[in-house]
Structures are given as structure tokens and as C-alpha cells.
Amino acid sequence: MPLHQLTALSFTMDDASIKPEQLLRLAQLPALQELRLSLQAVWSAALATAPAWGQLPQLCELKVDCSEAHTTGRELAAVIAGVAAATALTGLELQMFQVESPGGEDAGHEEQAAVGVRGGRQQVALNISASIAGLTRLQELDVSGLDNVNSSSWRASGMVAGNVCALTVLTGLTSLRLAHGGACVDGFAATALAHSLQQLRRLDLAECELRAMSCLAAIADLRQLSYLGLEGNAGITRQGLMLLTRLSRLQSLSVAANDEVTAAFVDDFVLNAAWSSSSGWRPLGRVYAFSNSFDIGDS
């Protein structure tokens, strides 16, 4: 098909030499309505093209997977700003990673920030959660590794994870992944998100710090939920999990094993779920253990 007839294009950028003006040419394709960009482990390409993302009205999906990259906080701030400018996005996947502080740029930035505080000119930190919350068309959101933002290097770079409760405004979300959120995603945040994001079909809160199992009561009210990831959260209880038997459309549940959540309990859980026919439950299929986690899903 000739380029001028394309209505949708998925483009994986694996060339670090791509320039913003080259990317912007895609916006000139007359029939193009949907553009999906994927940047796989090419941080320099993400950094180079980020200023163009907000100028692509057809950009509906963006994946920045540079979890092994080494970068400074200022560079990452530029990429986050590019993401925030892409207001047409309906899908976003953003992997957070460790930021270098080689004693150069970011070390100097930290010193300047300290001077700013002493002089009454404290710099405004870039709030990642608030930046993403402005993307009100989002339907699928994956922001993994927010726990890394707690490192001193990130703080020195003027970056903060912010309150993930800011994401409650994204009421059109059907899929939300906040894996490896650590203390940035606690029980209070999970409760707030569950109360607001009633269209969720997939929710992944693996490796967070939910702790207070009261959040499971709120999650149990997500009537559309078909997948729930809870592995890596300490303190999951039997009582909390039994609340989830109300989820009539649940097809897959991942949860870490502990003293309470044993293989025998998981068997009972499935029986209770299948028994709750009044809420539309059906048998979930086989139960198996992997990496000290139980995964409940279809065979």
C-alpha cells in the first residue's frame, strides 16, 4: 500500500540516529489516523524525538522501554515532558529505571537546588504522576518502576513520582499497570484508584506496598476486572483474598505465597469462587505455583 494511503502505522524505533524532523514527516501523511511508536532500549532515540511527540496528533500509543539505559535526570525530565505533551495518547507504556549521578551534571544540579532552597528560590520538581494525569484520553497505562524514583539521584534531578492518586482522573482507563511501584503505590492509593477507575479490566499492582488489605474490598467492586496482579505484596491475607470472590469476571489472579496463602488455601479459594454462582462465578481452571507465587487462571 502506498504511504499516502496508510490509515494506521506501528513504528518500532531502533535507530539512535533518527531526528525529530524525520518523525514529524509522518504527521504529513494525509490518511494517517493512528500512529503507534515503540522505543526498545534505544534511549538516545527517545531523548532525540521526545520534543516531537506532542506535535503528532495521530500518536495514539507510545512505548518507551529503556529499563537498562543509563541517563541523567535532566534527560529523563525531557522525555517525561515529551510524554505529557502527547495529549492524543490512548496507550502509554513507560518503564522507570535507575538514574545515574556520576558526580557531574546531576551532582551540580543537586547543589544548585540546595542553594535555591537556602536563597528562597526552591525549584519546582517535575511530578511524574501529575504529568501523566493530563493525558485524559488514556485507556491503557503501564508505568513500571516508580519505586526507583525514590532514589537520591532522582530527587537530586528535581524529579518526584508524585501522588499516584492523581491518576484517578483517568476514568477511561481499562488497563492499569503500576508494577514495582514500591512505597509509591500503597493501600490508600490502591483504594482511591479502585474507587475512581470503575472501567478497569486489568489491574497489576505487583511489587507494591499495599499492606492494608482494606484496599482489596475496593478492588472487589471492580465489576469488569478480569486480571489482577498482587504478587510481591507482603501481608496478603486469606480474609482479604476471599473478598475477591465477588469479582464475577475474574479470569486470572497472581498472588505471592505466604504463611496464610498456601496451595491448600488457593484450592479452597477456587472452590468458593466457583460456588458463588449468584455472582456469576465460574471455575477458574487449574491452579499452579511458580516462583513462590500462585497464579490462578484458565488452563
Distance between the termini: 40 Å
What gross morphology would you assign?
Answer: globular
Helical fraction equals 25-40%
Please state how the strands of the largest beta sheet are arranged side by side. Answer: 1-2-3-4-6-8-10-12-13-15-14
> Rg to the nearest angstrom?
21 Å
Largest sheet: 11 strands, mixed
Q: Helix segment count?
A: 10
Q: What portion of the residues fall into strands of 2 or more residues?
A: 15-25%
Which stretches of 5+ consecutive residues score pLDDT under 50? 102-122, 277-292
Average pLDDT taken over every residue: 81
Order of helices and strands: EHEHEHEHEHEHEEEHEEHEHEHEE
What can you see in these coordinates?
- With 299 residues, this protein is an alpha/beta fold.
- It has a domain at 183-195 and 214-299.
- The protein contains ten helices and 15 strands.
- The chain has helices at 20-24, 43-53, 73-85, 105-118, 128-133, 152-156, 187-196, 214-219, 238-242, 263-275; strands at residues 8-13, 34-40, 59-65, 91-95, 126-127, 140-144, 159-160, 175-177, 182-186, 202-204, 208-209, 227-229, 252-256, 287-290, 293-296.
- Strands 1-2-3-4-6-8-10-12-13-15-14 form an eleven-stranded mixed beta sheet, covered by helices on one side. Strands 5-7 form a two-stranded parallel ribbon. Strands 9-11 form a two-stranded parallel ribbon.
- Strand 12 (227-229), helix 9 (238-242) and strand 13 form a beta-alpha-beta unit.
- The model is unreliable at 102-122 and 277-292 (pLDDT under 50).
- It is found in: Cytoplasm, Cytoskeleton, Cilium axoneme.
- InterPro entries: LRR_dom_sf.
- Its main location: cytoplasm.
